């Protein structure tokens, strides 16, 4: 059978990995797919560099639309990234009847509903395993492997840059700004790391997983997003003393009134497996009603790990290329006509309605009665205290210090209630600095 022909848009780090892995493992991939898969055309603005990667046997152009217009191309891989030209090219490829493989989580999190609707109308597939957690096959697990389950929650370390920074802060006792510079020097963080450190990248990925897990449209605009820039070495140290580690988690959860969709730093018990995921590695925990808790761990980025996911999508499309579109696995796991109804039945909750527990750190005057006032405010709000840790003043500010840190762990409470209590505590004259609040996730 004639090999399926693939056009590649963008041959940077991931694109080069895709080409190299496909070449290296061609025989095994063909045996699995049932026919050969060949990249026969590449579009990249740097034509000479692209030619140096693919050699003489592949047509290289500087115009992506030439790839889409080629009637011989069956599948288009989009590895350009971003919301702009990438969206136009994906929509044009779909309109031209091409299947699409993309690693573009930002595009799918923001415009996924429009893209999937266009693909369904045209009878083509859009595959995106590489968009979430690099080489970890979490999309396939959620969409197919766990299809018997009513998913209850997902919690994931899905950004390697922030996990590397937090690991270094914990290991070396350094503050965020110092470790960020080191991460940039080592190549773990971009020159402009905003999307990573502010939690946006993780929120894109959590949005996609939420849609697949709960059968709702992608709704990135409703996600709560908080990064790691305000974390200090002191909080990481105190968390450790209390038996926790701080991780940036992407969380989506089925609650009584709807779906939680949030990204923020979280205290996780150090005995949990996910709490021990270090460096730039990724991990996702999925809780299903039938299977219980499952953990997916591996490299969340990089040339060949991401290429592994892209090629898995190529194989899936090759196998299903001639199948009736009505009998393919739906893009978001649930049949498309059910998504609108689900959006009404399962709204994404505002953060003020989320229920979780908290770590609070208050820099307070070292004098009698301060703890009583603070705990009185929490009690008045109906917030139950799990643990209290008060540091010696000289440990916090040196000998003769008149300030100390008060650390409080709470039981579950509604975020809106906690916001009101924090405002009251902040107004106390004995509270000397902005209160640090980090949510706590037991993940049990």
At a glance:
Helix content is 40%, strand content 24%.
- Tell me the strand percentage band: 15-25%
Query: What percentage of residues falls in helices of 4 or more residues?
Result: 25-40%
CATH topology of the largest domain: Dihydrodipicolinate Reductase, domain 2
How many domains? 3
Ranges with pLDDT <50 over ≥5 residues?
none
How many strands, which pairing sense, and closed or not: the largest β-sheet? 11 strands, mixed
| Rg, Cα atoms, Å | 24 Å
Strand tally is 17
Mean pLDDT: 94
CATH superfamily descriptor of the largest domain = Dihydrodipicolinate Reductase, domain 2
Structural class: alpha/beta
Span between N and C termini?
50 Å
> Number of DSSP helices?
17
- CATH C-level class of the largest domain: Alpha Beta
Named at the architecture level, the CATH assignment of the largest domain is 2-Layer Sandwich
- What is the overall silhouette? elongated
Topology overview:
Blueprint: E1 4-9, H1 13-24, H2 26-33, E2 37-43, H3 47-54, E3 59-61, H4 64-69, E4 75-78, H5 85-95, E5 99-102, H6 105-122, E6 126-127, H7 138-145, E7 151-157, H8 160-172, H9 176-186, H10 194-197, H11 200-214, E8 224-225, H12 233-241, E9 244-255, E10 258-269, E11 281-288, E12 292-299, H13 303-320, H14 339-345, E13 355-365, H15 370-380, E14 385-390, H16 393-397, E15 403-410, E16 413-414, H17 415-426, E17 436-440
Parallel strand pairs: 1-2, 1-4, 2-3, 4-5, 5-6, 8-10, 10-17
Antiparallel strand pairs: 7-9, 7-11, 9-10, 11-12, 13-15, 13-16, 13-17, 14-15
Helix pairs in contact: 1-13, 2-13, 5-6, 6-11, 8-9, 15-17
